[in-house]
Design goal:
The protein is mostly helical. The protein is built from 6 helices and no strands. The longest helix has 28 residues, at 65-92.
Length: 169
């Protein structure tokens, strides 16, 4: 038991230390103050993966044509916005196409890059809806291990990326 307590304390101390080197520009942004909201969203996603098919078992598939059209067009617009912001800010900041270290300053272009990357992180959370729509439409064959792994890791890993390295190439 003492070893477990020691391991937990060491892990907590390590996390506290990592916060001292986190990107200060993003610490007050939504979802960025600590990992719990991101983890809660990811756990809810995994819970839906387990409960959703049980709920849909004896039901007709939902017809979500209009919803999917709105969702897909919204994602196209969001991703275009992210691309535009990254392109314009990186160009204005004089980014190198080969290697660019993270600039943690409050330079407006650097903050704009960080904000665009934050929106990309948010988009990964929104994309959990891809799986929700598959399940509600009873397209269970689309929900593969790779699909689930990709969605869970992208959202979680992008939180880490934004927390510590929001910028650079």
């Amino acid at each position: 038991m003492e070893i477990v307590t020691h391991l937990i304390n060491d892990t907590i101390e390590f996390y506290k230390w990592t916060l001292t080197i986190a990107d200060k520009r993003v610490e007050k942004w939504p979802l960025m103050d600590n990992p719990l909201p991101t983890l809660a969203i990811s756990i809810s996603y995994l819970l839906f993966l387990w409960l959703g098919p049980k709920y849909m078992k004896n039901r007709e598939p939902f017809q979500l044509r209009k919803t999917l059209i709105v969702y897909n067009f919204s994602m196209v617009f969001l991703n275009f916005f992210i691309f535009k912001e990254l392109f314009m800010a990186a160009r204005a900041a004089g980014y190198s196409y080969i290697c660019q270290s993270v600039n943690y300053s409050d330079d407006p272009n650097e903050v704009r890059v960080a904000a665009a990357l934050w929106w990309y992180f948010v988009s990964k959370g929104i994309e959990y809806l891809d799986t929700v729509f598959f399940i509600l439409r009873k397209k269970f064959n689309q929900v593969t291990f790779l699909h689930v792994y990709h969605h869970c890791t992208m959202f979680t890993l992008w939180w880490i990326g934004i927390k510590w390295v929001a910028g650079g190439v």
